[in-house]
Amino acid sequence: MYGSYRSSYYPSYRYSYPSYGYGSSYYDRIYGNYSYGNYDSGGSDYGSSNYGSYDPYPYYSNYYYGYGRRRRNYWERDRDTYNSWRRNENTARTRTPSPETPPPPPQPEVPEEELVKELHVKDIDLHIKANTEKHRTADYDCTKDRKVDGKLEPAELVVRRGDTIKMTITFDKSPYSKEKNDLQLIFSIGKDPKPARGTKVEFKIDESGNQKFKPDKWGATLQDKTGNDITILVYIPANCIIGEWNFYVKTISEGKDKDGKDKTLSGTYKPKDDITILFNPWCKEDGVYMATENLLNEYICNENGAVWRGNHEQRGASAWNYGQFEEGILEICLHLVRSGFGPDKLRHMSNPVQVSRMIVKMVNASDDNGVIMGNWSGEYEGGTPPWKWAGSIKILKQWQKSGPVKFGQCWVFACVTTTVCRALGIPCRTVTNFASAHDTDETNSIEKYFSPDDEELEEYNADSIWNFHVWNEAWMARPDLEPYYPYGWQVIDATPQERSEGVYMCGPCPVAAIRKGDCSTKYDAGFIFSEVNADKVHWRVFPGDRAELIEILKDKIGKFISTKTPTGLQFKYKKHMSMAEKDDYAMERCLDLTMDYKPKEGTEAERESVMNAHRTARFPIIETYLGEEEIVKHVEFHLYHDNKAMIGSKMEIEFTAKNTGRNERKISYASIRVYAQSYTGYNGRMLLSRTFNGATLKPGEEKRFGAVLEPDDYLYYLLEQASVRIDAKANVDRAGDEEKQRARKEHVVRFRRPDLEVEGPEETKVGDTVRFKVTVINPLDRPLTNCSFSMESVGFEDLSEDVPTMDVPARGVHTEEFMLRAVKRKKYGAVYFSFDCKEIPDISGSTEIRINP
């Protein structure tokens, strides 16, 4: 009676909550991944259970007896306890003694083959070569046996989520039996793994061999059984947390003991190595899925890249060594992101949106002990000048060893970000925006203020326009922005310019949202829009801080947004190229992204995008998008100069005025000034100033004002990137019905610098020592002093320190030879050299070399 009551009141069922993961349901996020066994109220089906999983709703027999006593009936097991309680009952009733219970009959001896025996795991073969080739991770240096600090390190398994991996388990005494044995896998990550956090999961191995895996669930199925070996397929869900996962194999054996009683034995085996799991852009269910294989060859697999610098009239490119597959880099990148989230928020490492945001936060060292300290002061004592870096490997390894690295600027931040993203499996590219605005007051326009006599008011001018700025695009899905921007390229930026949510980071923000001027989109859409498509607005300030709108320049910001064409190949100048040939080569390998960020300048669609940005600006200036009164200008002004002048040569400047009206016009004032300028728009020393007497122009007449900038005027006063800003101004008096004019032209010019010529063989073998010849040509009429070389490579043993070298005489040529040993097989090995001196910083060159086994 009691048994029927118990079975009806405590039905045989289990609760099963869905597992936590990126894109999961509410209960996934709240309760984590629980998987409970299938037990009957009258017995145990342990072979199909998930042993060790916590059960928040245990049925009665489990709760009362615990696991080890479930098979015994309640009354058989506790008759003595019940009678003892009855004997102690205070009652006057007369008891009739019960007859003595006869001893149980002797049990037959259990045959040896039926006795329960523990199943021992001897070894697990992770099939590293086959798994890494399948998962496209074989290029990681850690997946091969190698020497690290003189010690032989065995290969490690690196795989991508959303796919299966093969394992072979070997048992040492007896083979695996489907009837008597069960296996469970336990995966965990972090210091205190918990199912509720998504950092621990347990699941059994399906024995049918035909289990169909679900994209967001862990699973395993038996594939083959031979002797004492079984081969299984383990499925890693496409929303798995990335990182180094520990895993265990739990064996369960059921049978009888010598007395014929049911007995269960279990054991645990921990392999020596962890399994590193990364994002999988080849998997449709992963948030970083990219359908085009050729693009993945560039944005995941290419270790070599290029970054464009200069200005929109002079765009030059230099090679960069990303090195995402090099020894130790993957471990450093994972540690970087993991340390940013902390141990309690590792679940966010399943979400590429949050991971990319954390990457840009941690690449700069402004708020945390991130990788790179920014410095735009021009003083780099105690660190490395930004232009001397040729790749990401030295930077990341130095950070791992001693903390934040000194120093970097925008292209260094961006190139290191590319390395980290590609290493973790997020498609990423380095992007340069020329004439890039920096909006400091969230008006979504760039304001510049002048005094009544047309002098710049530096105390008012917080906004700036950089000659160029480098950021990144990362490819991922945005389920938080559906249905408007479900997937695509997202801008991320590690350069510490403005704070986002209280810290220096920027993005991810969809490029498609920037094109529409949808500045309410997270993250940081307004700031990024201003960089590429804000209007430049000039104001004149009168006493009492009264401001008058002078003009709105609608096409001065966001020029030639550039990245490397996705060929999957190295960016490499050919030997003995002229400067013009190098320019042509760089432009051929440049992909112009400008139309992705904004419609064509001046079109109705482009103006609508700007208006959308003004409507959604945090602090809009109404007069800006109402527009200025159109003034017909009857005198045309132009500014001319040489855009390809080599450093050390003179520059001729010409400012012209042409009268296109009906009346004679008088130019009451004209001037040309030249300033040294940093690439961030900061004006340094005035290098040249020429003021011209007034001139009268008849209708159709043209007047030329000229000046010459000599080497002695600028050579020792140039700032980084060797840029100068040319300002030309003129005032035209009113004549008849033609209004007075104020003309201003601003051009930024970058002096050309020589490149290093790097010569070496086309191929070599691992272990061979290779001779490289590096040549620098001095274009100046004075020696280059305080000279040194530095280098970084893919596949070679790098120089640990800078190599000082002799001064290079005026107009002279200097060649240095370097002997480097090839240490790793590389299809596209490369060496990157940089040359530094007091007179001309930032001279670099590289060459490609194949390294055979």
Descriptive report:
With 853 residues, this protein is α+β, with helices and mostly antiparallel strands. The chain folds into five domains: 2-83, no CATH class; 112-278, Immunoglobulins (Immunoglobulin-like, Sandwich), CATH 2.60.40.10; 293-615, Transglutaminase-like (Coagulation Factor XIII, Chain A, domain 2, Alpha-Beta Complex); 631-750, Immunoglobulins (Immunoglobulin-like), CATH 2.60.40.10; 757-852, Sandwich (Immunoglobulin-like), CATH 2.60.40. 17% of the residues lie in helices and 35% in strands. Helix 7 (329-341) packs across helix 8, helix 7 (329-341) packs across helix 10 and helix 8 (352-363) runs antiparallel to helix 10 (410-424). The radius of gyration is 36 Å and the shape is elongated. Mean pLDDT is 86; it is low at 1-93.
Task: Give me the CATH superfamily of the largest domain.
Answer: Transglutaminase-like
- The Rg value, from CA coordinates, equals 36 Å
Number of domains: 5
State the total count of DSSP E strands: 43
Low-confidence stretches: 1-93
If you average the pLDDT, what whole number results?
86
Q: Report the helical percentage.
A: 10-25%
- The second-level CATH architecture of the largest domain is Alpha-Beta Complex
Biggest pleated-sheet summary: 6 strands, mixed
Strand content: 25-35%
